[in-house]
Amino acid sequence: MDEIAAPLKKRLATSYMVMQEVNHQLFTDSVEEEIVLGVREPSEDRLKQVLLQMDIATLKERHPMTLSGGQKQRVAIGAAVFCGKTILVFDEPTSGLDFSHMMQTVGLLEQLKSPDIYIFVITHDYEFILSACDEVIEIENGTLKNDYLLDCAGLQKLRAFYSINSNC
Fold it and tell me: What is the pLDDT of residues 78-122, one digit of tens each?
């Protein structure tokens, strides 16, 4: 049992997931409390920075469940950013977001990129993939089907997956 528990605890300590259905992960009475939830000594300056980055600073005192779907999504992403974990998993992070906020999310993911942070995105959004991702991993029925960089050859594979006829 300990062989399983130790790796699980380590994964929990180093990873954070933003679910597609964010209502299942919003627990507090305010946006501000939601962002800092689970962080032992939250930095006020860092909190302000994340609230501004996610365009939710004016919502900081609102109850998360009173927000629109896109606003809730940005709160959940903000919490992921704020927690400082090294493995971030985003399940359909652009669901409910308009194009402007999708591109804002792309920019935020770009800022998060570093050799110390691993970002996994589960998405069906072709534009988001092109804007935010460096590599595509296709999984079908729990099995790795394809894995490729988004270079010219990879773009052709991605276009074939989406049935888009186009050259690089």
Answer: 999 899 888 999 999 888 778 888 898 888 888 888 888 899 999
pTM comes to 0.80
The burial class, CB within 10 Å (0-12 / 13-18 / 19+), for 91 is middle
Cα angle 10, 115, 104 (rounded to 5 degrees) comes to 100
Tokens representing 108 are 């935020």
Domain ranges of the chain: 16-86+93-115
Distance of CA 129 to the CA centre of its chain: 12
In order of 113, 126, 135, 137, 158, the CA distances from 149 in angstroms are 16, 15, 4, 9, 10
Q: Which two tokens stand for residue 85?
A: 């974990």
Fold entry, domain 16-86+93-115: Rossmann fold (3.40.50)
